[in-house]
């Protein structure tokens, strides 16, 4: 976690150590001016002169810091900006924003808000249960809903008071009553395989590679990532903030990026944040690549890092017996894994891998496979690989292909998508627009012949591990083959159009996803939408349930030929407003699922079974969705460099018969969807669902006047239609006006 220096620095924010030195100098200087700012402290027994002034200066500075922390924490409780119409700020919000900027200092650092974020509030059980019942109403028959409501009322009158009281005690003394249990029971205690279930991926660009040279691309990326880590250690990374410039992100997960691993003892294995090497995995062989060297142990240049990586690519030595498939132990179910039984023969290389800043996976270029184009195969390869080509236990796996394309595989337990996405955007921008490449595709600079080749890690696999390896390999390969990915670049319109519709982009897409899923499966399902709670101390995520009564009414209207577009548009506005209400509740700590999750854990710890909570925990999320964050638009220029914009990433489905859908707004005119499902499921097909998403987006846009001619809508259960209506350019006629929408949350 944070080093003691960082802990002191976070405690000194937002005033900063410089203010303490200034105050100390001022107090000491006043002594020579025959003043007594210590209010008589110089007469305290045993404390005279300079010592008394020092004690007084320290006390005064501590009081100043505490005051700033309290005021800033009170200010950060304000959530009124969530209801502000886009493009306008009320007087209370403008005043609040000015005060936050004053009390957070001129240049907030990564640690400025560390001790000032408010605690996550604990909702009432009655409110949570009411919201839960409302969320499942469109999915249940009248009889089933009546039975569930009776069960919920019984829960509120029997188990709920005791469970809520004990959870309230934890919420009183803990900074966040959810975060530690969420990390431990959802991730660290889980015995499910990381492959395709927990880890997620982020790709680089949609259609271009800055260089075709694999080693060069990896060299620049490694340099940019290690430099970002150094800036992180110095606290020079600015905190991620919202549209108002005052919504901070917690800094603690940032320091766990380099390096971290989930261990068998249900703890984060966070090694020295100053590790000066990375582990490289190539054709089943492991290498230790030193990233620092020379005078002063400085970070090696990108050209020297490329030189080192080329050594590995040119090394013809094969993998040793059992070594080639060793990484499968990190992909299979956790009960079959290297970390469950490490021995002295594996300890040395394992320490190198776990202590590395991250792992680099040098891969062959994925090509089209059957009906899957190269882009789909690249996404699938970064997410799951071959089952034994990723060290899934590491916080970060940098995957670089022979074609020069690359991506990031991220272990999920230490943080959620905003943290690695922020780092990845900075890396891509630095690699392409700052470091660059020479005309021949190599990294800029010159090689260094004095730097030796990377060290090969030689594993001696003990018998107990070798016995479990074939089983782990079979399961990991089966999981990898069963994961299907599809990327849909939707280029008809993007955030620019949704803004003209006065509708938050996430609400627009979520309603289109409900329509697409209805057409794909002929019905509605429980839908998961991730939403961050970074406004609270140690905040991670909350669930939005976008399959509402209002959304279902809109979808049915879209499929009802008796209704007019004006009637459908009215229902769309009602459904979008309801979705935003759910977003606002999740952002302000008034969501449903995390509260019910913690109540369930308390019931289990007390051995007090609750039929209602057990049923809630058994629910299946057949549609799991998330919006990929894009926090640093200033790093990219979609207008002049449309190809050089991060295309986001995705994750595996939460249910074997469901879909995983992630989407990212790329500039003003493109939305990229990342869709996943299980190959073995007879009900799902990622490319078919992608076509339904495209049709649904266009059909919803037609309600606002985008498109020509009558809209030919698909019917539930039918195949996606052909001959879609043409779409006007983004500068076409203005869409029909909808009520002004509030500012959109980030996911």
Automatic annotation (TrEMBL):
The keyword Signal does not apply. It is found in: Membrane. Keywords: Acyltransferase, Fatty acid metabolism, Lipid metabolism, Membrane, Transferase, Transmembrane, Transmembrane helix. The keyword Acyltransferase applies. GO terms for cellular component: membrane; mitochondrion. The chain crosses the membrane at residues 50-76. Residues 120-694 form the Choline/carnitine acyltransferase domain. GO terms for molecular function: carnitine O-palmitoyltransferase activity. GO terms for biological process: carnitine metabolic process; fatty acid metabolic process. The active site is at residue 412. Residues 708-747 are annotated as: Disordered. Residues 715-728 have a biased composition (Basic and acidic residues). Pfam families: Carn_acyltransf. It is a multi-pass membrane protein. Belongs to the carnitine/choline acetyltransferase family. This is Carnitine palmitoyltransferase 1C. It comes from Vombatus ursinus (Common wombat). The gene is CPT1C.
């Amino acid at each position: 976690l944070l080093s003691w220096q960082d802990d002191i620095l976070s405690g000194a924010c937002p005033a900063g150590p410089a203010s303490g030195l200034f105050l100390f100098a001022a107090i000491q200087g006043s002594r020579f001016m025959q003043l007594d700012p210590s209010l008589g402290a110089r007469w305290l027994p045993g404390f005279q002169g300079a010592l008394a002034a020092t004690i007084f200066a320290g006390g005064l500075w501590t009081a100043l810091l505490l005051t700033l922390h309290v005021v800033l924490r009170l200010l950060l409780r304000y959530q009124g900006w969530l209801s502000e119409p886009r493009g306008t700020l009320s007087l209370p919000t403008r005043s609040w924003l000015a005060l936050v900027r004053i009390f957070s200092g001129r240049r907030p650092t990564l640690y400025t808000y560390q001790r000032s974020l408010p605690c996550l509030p604990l909702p009432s059980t009655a409110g949570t249960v009411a919201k839960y019942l409302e969320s499942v109403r469109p999915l249940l028959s009248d009889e089933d809903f009546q039975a569930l409501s009776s069960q919920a009322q019984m829960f509120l009158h029997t188990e709920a008071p005791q469970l809520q009281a004990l959870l309230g005690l934890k919420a009183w003394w803990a900074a966040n009553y959810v975060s530690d249990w969420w990390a431990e029971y959802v991730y660290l205690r889980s015995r499910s395989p990381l492959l395709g279930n927990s880890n997620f991926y982020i790709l680089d660009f949609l259609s271009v590679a800055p260089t075709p040279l694999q080693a060069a691309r990896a060299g620049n990326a490694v340099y940019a990532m290690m430099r970002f880590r150094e800036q992180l250690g110095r606290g020079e990374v600015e905190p991620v903030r919202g549209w108002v410039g005052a919504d901070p992100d917690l800094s603690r997960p940032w320091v766990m990026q380099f390096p971290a691993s989930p261990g068998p003892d249900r703890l984060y294995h966070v090694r020295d944040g100053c590790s000066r090497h990375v582990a490289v995995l190539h054709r089943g062989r492991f290498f230790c690549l030193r990233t620092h060297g020379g005078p002063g142990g400085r970070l090696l240049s990108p050209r020297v890092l490329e030189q080192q990586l080329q050594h590995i690519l040119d090394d013809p030595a094969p993998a040793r017996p059992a070594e080639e498939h060793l990484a499968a132990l990190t992909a299979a179910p956790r009960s079959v894994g290297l970390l469950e039984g490490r021995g002295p023969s594996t300890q040395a290389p394992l320490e190198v891998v776990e202590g590395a800043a991250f792992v680099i996976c040098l891969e062959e270029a994925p090509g089209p496979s059957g009906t899957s184009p190269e882009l789909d195969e690249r996404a699938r390869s970064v997410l799951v690989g071959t089952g034994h080509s990723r060290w899934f236990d590491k916080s970060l796996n940098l995957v670089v292909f022979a074609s020069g394309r690359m991506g990031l595989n991220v272990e999920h337990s230490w943080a959620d998508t905003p943290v690695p996405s922020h780092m990845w955007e900075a890396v891509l921008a630095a690699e392409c627009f700052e470091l660059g490449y020479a005309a021949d595709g190599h990294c800029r600079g010159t090689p260094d012949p004095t730097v030796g080749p990377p060290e090969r890690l030689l594993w001696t696999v003990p018998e107990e591990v070798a016995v479990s390896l074939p089983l782990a390999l079979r399961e990991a390969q089966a999981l990898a083959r069963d994961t299907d990915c599809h990327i849909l670049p939707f280029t008809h319109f993007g955030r620019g159009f949704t803004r003209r519709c006065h509708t938050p982009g996430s609400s627009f897409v979520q309603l289109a996803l409900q329509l697409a899923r209805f057409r794909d499966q002929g019905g509605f399902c429980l839908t998961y939408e991730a939403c961050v709670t970074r406004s609270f101390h140690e905040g991670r995520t909350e669930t939005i349930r976008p399959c509402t009564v209002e959304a279902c009414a809109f979808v049915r209207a879209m499929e009802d030929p008796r209704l007019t577009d004006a009637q459908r548009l009215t229902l769309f506005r009602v459904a979008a407003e309801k979705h935003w209400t759910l977003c606002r509740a999740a952002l302000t700590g008034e969501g449903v699922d995390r509260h019910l999750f913690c109540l369930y854990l308390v019931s289990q710890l007390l051995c007090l079974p609750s039929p209602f909570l057990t049923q809630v925990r058994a629910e299946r999320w057949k549609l799991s969705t998330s919006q990929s964050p894009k926090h640093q638009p200033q790093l990219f220029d979609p207008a002049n460099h449309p190809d050089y914009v991060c295309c986001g990433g995705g994750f595996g489905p939460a249910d074997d018969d469901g879909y995983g859908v992630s989407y990212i707004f790329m500039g003003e005119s493109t939305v990229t969807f990342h869709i996943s499902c299980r190959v073995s499921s007879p009900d799902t097909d990622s490319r078919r669902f992608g076509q339904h998403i495209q049709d649904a987006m266009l059909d919803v846009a037609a309600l606002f006047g985008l498109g020509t001619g009558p809209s030919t809508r698909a019917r539930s259960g039918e195949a996606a239609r052909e001959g879609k209506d043409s779409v006007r350019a983004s500068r076409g006629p203005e869409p029909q006006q909808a009520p002004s929408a509030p500012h959109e949350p980030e996911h």
